[in-house]
Specification:
Blueprint: E1 2-7, E2 13-20, E3 23-26, H1 32-36, H2 41-50, E4 58-60, E5 65-66, E6 76-80, H3 84-89, E7 99-103, E8 108-109, E9 115-117, E10 123-124, E11 127-133, H4 142-147, E12 149-156, E13 159-160, H5 161-164, H6 171-174, E14 180-188, E15 197-202, E16 205-211, H7 219-227, E17 237-239, E18 261-266, E19 270-278
């Protein structure tokens, strides 16, 4: 099953079941995160799908406006330096533990939304597989973590490298509001394979390509590790890291320009396509 969050005509949102390339069925929840918070969410989706022929409301894709998949995610936790090739291009050694940082739900945008960036002149791309949590996890082992995965989605951890490099802490370069595309759908874990091909394009040019089989820490490992120090709840989102090919690792470095289109795709899940509007960087304070 593929689940999405759609914007509605009245300014709200609704969770929806994708029924094909051109239609969705509305679900009785405001978004996918709210749906996953319901213990019986699977039964709700299955019942809705079964009722499709009984004149259930169908939303045509041409009229569907895909919102951020999890607009109210309680926790958005990201893993950096998790593909061997990306670690090498950054000049680092394989880590003993995951390198983690957090975002807020405010950073998330939809799969086709334009992305406005104010105050950075070094905007970089990071195509990623993201994991959606489906049940509460705390101090879980890997088997428990694997069982708690609701599904997978596509994300791009867009990074403001000039801000990121100001200090040893990455947070300020990773948490700009409305700059992290996520979606367009969540593929439920029961229909997902073990590994995914992840690709990123800038203006149609392939710049990133990797397979999650080369992750240092896989999805279940990440969720288990994170749950040792903080509880994970339904609708939380974990980004698993990016393969090699980021702009900062190129010679010379390459960054997004105003008007560039960033495409992120994962076979079997879907595609993000976001045009960037990059405004002049803000002046750096004299004491920075």
């Amino acid at each position: 099953m593929k689940l999405a969050t759609l914007r509605t005509a009245n300014g709200g949102t609704t969770a929806a079941l994708a029924t094909g390339a051109d239609s969705y069925l509305a679900l009785p929840a405001a978004d996918v995160g709210a749906l996953l918070a319901l213990p019986e969410w699977r039964q709700i989706v299955e019942k809705t799908a079964a009722a499709q022929e009984a004149h259930q409301q169908v939303i045509a894709a041409v009229d569907a406006d895909v919102a951020p998949l999890l607009p109210r995610a309680g926790k958005v936790i990201c893993c950096g330096l998790n593909y061997g090739d990306h670690i090498q291009e950054m000049g680092r050694e394989l880590p003993e533990y995951p390198t983690l940082f957090a975002k807020y739900a405010d950073t998330l945008v939809g799969a086709a939304d334009a992305v406005e960036v104010h105050g950075s002149g070094r905007v970089d791309w990071e195509a990623e597989l993201a994991v959606v949590v489906g049940s509460e996890l705390y101090r879980a082992d890997e088997d428990q973590a694997r069982a708690a995965i609701a599904g997978y989605t596509v994300a791009n951890d867009v990074s403001m490298r000039d801000w990121q490099s100001r200090t040893l802490q990455w947070f300020q370069g990773k948490a700009f509001d409305a700059t992290t595309p996520v979606g367009p759908v969540m593929l439920t874990a029961d229909e997902a394979g073990q590994h995914f091909d992840v690709r990123g394009y800038v203006n149609g040019q392939l710049v990133q390509q990797g397979n999650t089989s080369t992750l240092v820490f896989g999805p279940a490992q990440l969720l288990s590790y994170i749950s040792q120090f903080t509880v994970l709840r339904p609708g939380d989102l974990v980004l698993t890291g990016t393969p090699g090919g980021v702009g900062m690792g190129m010679t010379p470095p390459r960054f997004l320009k105003d008007g560039d289109v960033l495409t992120t795709e994962i076979d079997g899940i879907g595609q993000l396509e976001n045009q960037f509007r990059i405004h002049a960087p803000a002046a750096i304070p004299a004491n920075a």
